[in-house]
Amino acid sequence: MKIAVCVKHAVDESELRADPSGKPILQGAASKVSTFDKNAAEEALRMKAKSGGEVVIVCVGPAEAKKTIREALAMGADKAVHVVSDASGRDSLATSYLLWKALAKSGPFDAVLCAEGSSDTYEGQVPPMLAEWMALPYAGYASKIELSGSVAKVEQSLEDSSQTLELTVPFVASVVSEINEPRYPTLIQIMQASKKPMEELTPQQLSGPDAPTSLSRVLDTRVQSMNRKKVVFEGAPEETATKLLDALKAEGVIGA
Amino acid sequence: MTFVVWAYSEAEGVANEVASAADEIAKSVSGSAAVIDLDQERPGVSSPGRKLVLKASSPLADSPELAAEAIFRAAKAAGPSAVLLGATRRGREVASRLAVKMKVGCVSEVFRLKAGAEELQGERNMYAGKFLSTVACRFPCVATLKTGVLPRLAGRQGSVDVIDLGALSPKVRLLGRAGKKAGTVDLKSAKVIVSAGRGVKKKEDLQMIDELARSLGGVLGCSRPLSSDLGWLPEEHHIGLTGLEVHPNLYLAVGISGQLQHIAGIKDSKIIAAINTDKDAPIFQAADYGVVGDLYQIVPAIKKLVSGG
Question: Is any Cβ of chain A less than 8 angstroms from the Cβ of B276?
Fold first, then answer.
């Protein structure tokens, strides 16, 4: 079983600050492996534990993304493929194309796992786009993946229902964070991660005449103002409870 | 070339939202809008113009894979300038696949759509809702629209045209479907939501929060740890970035610290209130009214006042 896990080098949204004009300070901003990608890596490692084989981390990102790749490798993956490419201006169509080409070059894979979306932009477009480029069976929002032989049974979590899908390998799947609890790497694993093989590729090596240009773009980003009243009540429970209810009644959001 | 916008969502309510956005965009550039139904015409789905009913040898509506292929084939013949879909989990898959098939750009979860001369523009949340971006995509394009924020189109005009696309077969087999449990909460349309977080010490105590929600005429929600990590409540109660985005009149967060991912799901609420022991908890920065204190004392005190008054 050869399993690929696609990871994103993401801006750490909780650390991201705005400059005085309200624009995000992306230069030098803290970054990390996109939160939910850890669930995809965890699932791949569990599949490997059952069926044997190899887990390969695949990432399209700038040189600094090595840090993100090592985070994923430290969880227990065997090796990595890094498509070194600056993120600025690259949309999900172009990213998914590069991932496809990188997977084709370092594969074939029996399964390609992604997170349902990234923690910074949360578009959720790359996994189904990848399935489409690769012309493989796809299950999105997987909350359970059961593999027996070359057949995978996937529980898919949708808004109004949960579905059971049957796919044959090779396939692409995106997982929801409820699927598992990602492991924490040990100190030794973190140290070993930097010694694991990491192949570097460039977009130029991978792009054919069918390569899409980025057709969607971000024109402007500004901080969302949190115009909340921030009235805080402290004191005895009966007293604060009364004050809270009075305030909510005055706002007309609960019955008087 | 005439400007034509197509609208589709597998969910009827969302389909009417997307149809209204398509109508508005089309009108702004003197174009026309059409609504897509798959397999059969849905009487509950409105259209400002034509309805295109796409059919094939295999059912399309249940398969995002086939839905995308069907819309692609119809689009190849008709050449719409934009295809708008609802940003549901199925809708995101259809849109992403369609973008690859059509080799066009795709913007996701957008609202406040505008048609420029050469591109579609819209706004979307970024970095867990901390920031707002204006995004653009050159025509022809695909877009998924944020659900629950647009008006729903009512009524229907224009013809219903059935297009048969011949043989299509999926790569994935659907073995079964289970609806979410009966009595499922409708948090999307709730006016009052009381949500529980990690501050609740044990599962049994959720009853107290649920009772508070009911006494205020609302329903019970929760932050991610309670549904995902602890499994105390089903996933459909989970409010936040990867769960539901809600917009009630009152959102009362009980024992929720206020991680960015949670705030992303509640920031469109009219009034946000919070109860938390830690007065430095980030939830207070995102709330209109906060009570610093032990929820095990405050919640009973509120309940007593509500039922007593």
Answer: no
CB-based contact A233 B291, cutoff 8 Å? yes
Which helix (H) or strand (E) covers residue B199, if one does?
none
Q: What is the pLDDT of residues A156-189, one digit of tens each?
A: 999 888 999 999 999 999 999 999 999 999 999 9
Cross-strand bridge partners of residue B156: B47
A167 contact residues in B (CB cutoff 8 A): 171-173
For residue A195, give how far its alpha carbon lies from the nearest alpha carbon of chain B (Å). 32
At residue A179, the pLDDT reads 95
Low-confidence ranges of chain A (pLDDT < 50): none
Name residues 47-66 of chain B within 8 A of A (Cβ).
64-65
Q: Burial of B122 by CB count in 10 Å (0-12 exposed, 13-18 middle, 19+ buried)?
A: buried
Q: ipTM score of the complex?
A: 0.94
Which of A88, A123, A145, A161 best tests the B interface by mutation, with the highest count of B CBs <10 A?
A123
CB B31 within 8 A of CB B46: no
- State which residue of chain B sits closest to A228, comparing Cα positions: B288
Dig out the tokens for B9 from the structure.
């969502």
Q: What is the rounded CA–CA span in Å between residue B89 and residue B242?
A: 11
CA distance A76 to A40: 12
Q: Which residues, 6 or more positions from A233, have their beta carbon under 8 angstroms from its beta carbon?
A: A239, A240, A243, A244, B289, B290, B291, B292
Residue B285 to residue B264: CA distance in whole angstroms: 13
The predicted structure's pLDDT at residue B2: 84
Task: Indicate the Cα dihedral angle A228, A232, A238, A241, nearest 10°.
Answer: 10
**Shortest Cα distance from B263 to chain A (angstroms)?**
10
**Global model pTM greater than 0.90:** yes
